[in-house]
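Dear Dr. L.,

I hope this message finds you well. Following up on our conversation about the binding site, I have prepared a predicted three-dimensional model of the protein together with heme C. For your records, I am including the exact sequence and ligand specification that went into the calculation, followed by the structure tokens. Please feel free to forward this to your student if that is useful.
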Amino acid sequence: MKWSISIIALLLLWSCEHNQEQNAQGKWIKGTEQEKLEIVESQFRGFDMAMVETGYRYQELYWAGQDENWEYADYQIEKIRKGIENGLKRSPKRAKSAEHFLTVAIPEMEKALEKRDILVFNKNFQIFTNNCISCHAMEKVPSFTIKNHFTDNHL
Ligand code: HEC
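The resulting structure of the complex is given below.
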């Protein structure tokens, strides 16, 4: 009798744990392999998250320049490139508008950074900002205006 009670108790305990495990974190990607991939893809998001990252790094880049912290500026421009490239993998329809930015605007900024000169940097930062704005115009999101509040020079 005692034995059977302990066995029932053990079984109950096991089934509780088993249920909890199914609801635990990390078990929410369900369905067929294809459905699971789609869930993972949607969690990576589209170009919007690349832009949230770009917006942040753009500001960090600006302040790195003002602080003449050139290594940090180098780091930020590299990550802006990576973020946009990854964003384009998720959202290839943006690739054409991004082309000038990747092949001209970013390399120009990298060249300006090599000078380690705040005047060169500030001049280039304006051009860089114009390139953000022109892609927003091409992509029909002109309301996402990048104002360069930092230099009081509203573009
Ligand atoms: C491919 C062209 C392209 C380039 C280059 C580009 N953007 Fe964007 N940006 C977009 C698009 C498209 C959106 C709208 C995102 C969406 O709807 O998926 C956007 C949205 C944004 C947003 C709003 C993000 C949000 O969801 O809150 C910010 C901030 C932004 N861009 C900043 C910048 C800055 C700063 C630069 C330059 C360093 C830049 N962008 C360069 C196309 C571009």
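In brief: The chain has a mean pLDDT of 88.

With kind regards,
A. P.
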